[in-house]
Sequence to fold (1056 residues):
Amino acid sequence: MVLFRKVALTVVMSIFALAMLFPILVTFSNSLMTESEIDYNYHLIGKMINVAAGEKNGFINLKLIPDWVSLSQYGEVLVHKPLFLHMFWNSVFMVLPIIIGQVVAASLAAYAFAKLRFWGREKLFVVYLMTMLMPFQVTLVPNYIIADKLGLMNSTAAIILPGIFSAFGVFMLRQFMLHIPYSYLEAAKMDGAGQLRIFYSIMLPLIKPGMAALTVLLFVDNWNMVEQPLIFLEDAFKQPLSLYLSRINEGARGVAFAASALYMAPMVLLFLYAESYFIEGIQLSGIKG
Amino acid sequence: MSSGIRLLRKDWMAAVLFLAPSLIGFSVFYLIPFATGLIYSFQDNTIDGTFVGLDNYQAVLSSGSFRKAAANTLLFTGVSVPLLIALSLCFAHLLNRRLFIRNWLQTAFVLPLVVPVASIVMMWQILFDWNGTLNVLLEHLHMGRMDWMKSEWSMVVLAVVYIWKNIGYNIILFLAGLQSIPKDYYETADIEGASGLHKWLHITWVYLTPTMFFVVLMSIINSFKVFRETYLIAGDYPHDRIYMLQHYMNNMFMSLNVQKLTAAATLMVAGILLFVSVMLMMERRFRSFME
Amino acid sequence: MKKVMLMILAAMFVLTISACSAGTGNPKGSAGGAGEVKTGQQPTDQSASSSGQPGGLGAPSDTEKKTVVFSTFFPNDYFKEAKKKYEAKHPNITIDLRSVETDDAHLLENLEKFVKTTGTAMLSGQGPDLIEMDQLPSGDYVKRKMLSNLGDIMEHDPDFIEEQYFTNILEGMKVNGGMYGLPIGFFIYGLLGNEDAIQKSGVTFDDSKWNWEQFITTAQAMTKGADKDHQYALGRSIPEYMTAQFVNERFSTFVNQEQGTANFVSGDFTNLLQQVKTLFDKKVVGTEARFPLFNTVQINSPTDYIRELRMSEFIPGGNAFTSKLYSSPNADPQHPGGSFRTYQTIGLNERSAVKAEAWDFMKFLLSDEMQSKPDGTGFPLNKASYAKKAQALVQKGSILSDQPIGPLKGKSFKITQQDIDDLDKFLKGATYPLQFKPSKIDEIITAEAQAFFTGQKSADEVAKLIQNRVTTYLNE
Fold:
């Protein structure tokens, strides 16, 4: 009976998973088509066939299985478009410092917001939240002025520094730290541990799932970032990969699928790796003893 | 008593140290721009502007398109955010159970997060274009074509894309949240012979409060981010069913009207803030319960 | 909640100081050292209130080191050469040319980037000193007072003699009496008519003030009874654009800008769609016309004019005819006469710290020395340079066809003084400015109307969609 339920649930979830995966399957399978096949299948996107002039009406041809399996798209992207790989590494070197910086700065601040008592704690927290709600267009002009004052224009620091200090990580880790009862921390305090020690050796291990989630979501958000680099990086050679795939012009459709597949690869690997942290869970008693 | 005060003071000192790195960067890159944006909304120019009181707000509120955008946004967020949260919570629970190939299933739900804008737009066109796959189906059923993005259905399409894209985001958060609930609580409840529903209501639901707060707010923020895809599909003046505040604000930005842009944004932030304060109140109850 | 607001207000107060002082920055790159920043800022402050003030910008400095930042979307050889020559003459001044590197595949996102970055920089009180406005929403820049009124500057600059330039173009570019950009060149638009057929028909008309409706009636009268190849009144036109042109002709019927209402869901508009469709169905207008009575043309240079004009005389098979250029119909009674479109229009940043130098460079761009170069695109704004180019052509007597294949290959076209005189009249009579980019309403109309003309949607459906989208635009 238990086994039956497990099988049934797995089947049901697999169906949902397939539906979720559909666009990604299309991307991967289409990335194995030749450019001319892509063009033949999708040239009617955004077009109106002139039926008034007697032409035959047609449709876009969505296909999952290529006529010929070909790696020509990948070859085109990786070999003939040197900018692609260059921008790929730009993305990596932009995202990694942001993740590391934000995890450090945010976990410290989150601890203060979650577990330390000080005047104005709630109010300051609301201020943090408010900045997350403001649309980027509003803060663009002041940010531009600040970046210019600090001499950050056209430097990746103009992307990385704001990335590190966004309120996102503080908010998220604070929420996870709220779970931890005060009694655990107080016990350590009685033993004479300082706050930094409590933070480091008690709090951090307890919020591992939250840290893993933060890392993954930071990666996703920053890997996909479009607007900031568009304004602050004048130089095409400094731009991240997300800008390469921020639009598909008709002419570039032929390699778009392979480019997208390559774009997704690092994040897929990260997911598979980080997943174990969500499943592991925590056991308070283990640490307490 | 005196030791209590000392403890509090020590806390305060520690708080400053813990906060300092984040707060400095946060002030420079977020707080100052935010405050500047607020100030712009009361001025007539970004450079050497003079104070014009509530004129910009009046201009925004008297714009029919702004009101339409606000109503659309409220409708879209009001329906699709709860739907998204319910679905992702449900899936997170199911994925948290014993399943075959659980790792792969989880990855499948999370993957839409990583699809680049360009691919989403391509897929969107393939499905919902005038010559798209959905219209092939309609034609087969002899129902005639439909211009999906220029009809009342456009918002439904938007909701589907939004939920598809963001469900993984929330599943990650909920899974992490569920794992953060110490197993000891459930074990204790098991010993006391509590029912499944009782455990869910009194342990899971309660301990998920902080995560829920975060998920709700992030879902709202992410619901604004579908704008990029919508913009690429339907342009700056789409069918008025999907003309959202993001369109209004983006158009104001493109025509360099920072006054209306900032006033509209401030109104929007104020609206969400009302909602946030309700959630903060709920959280405070949870907190006092924990302390 | 109240306390939160108080705290924010307090924070704002402190931050205002830093934010405001940040707002009065210098355009980037305009000054090399801290000392120069101060000298640079003075002209800015003056010009902020200078509209009625006598005196222009003064002479450009010839000792101080200054940098003028000039931003364009496409890199351009004309500007590169101008920079080289200007810097040689003024060793203390550097022209910092900036443009976007782009390939075709990324043109759209690079354009988005250029528009957004320039807008943000200008709103921050920075931005380049000189900007090529072709790809930018220049109307919005003018509305936000980001560009200097060049009309004022010209008036106070004794070196700038308006009569040396095509004054009709300068006049046509004015917005509410002010002038906010100077073009390097311009194109003219017109209808190239089959003069033989027009003469034969005996129909008379006045092309200096006709609109599209009148044009169609006149042309139809002239093509009456013509054979299949000659029955078209107009070639090279597509129905969507024709629709937009017709709407603009009776703009107030369809759009009330003050009240923010549109009137597209109406018999008026569906009739208009039907009317345009009939024109194409009945083969009065069409792209597939072989020998239409008129063809729309864009003329880029004197050579281009001769080629367009003479081409028809070489059509084989007894179909040759002589052509003549006429004014395009236009709806604006304020600007009777021909249409033109400016090219590489340059604006001067109102907050530039090196206005005098930037203006001097602009004048250099329009000087005969630069404008008489053969490789510039469009007609030069400088009359003397144009006259030189035209005279050179007349002296040469003929030009070769640029067609590499077909019946026109290797043919040479004769040029007479009469041709140049005709062209002169056109250049001086062009007063109706076409915008570099179509308006939002035009964009919406052409995009939606296509579905009707291709037979995919009914006129009512299309009318509803246009109504829906235009209303949103009008009410922002």
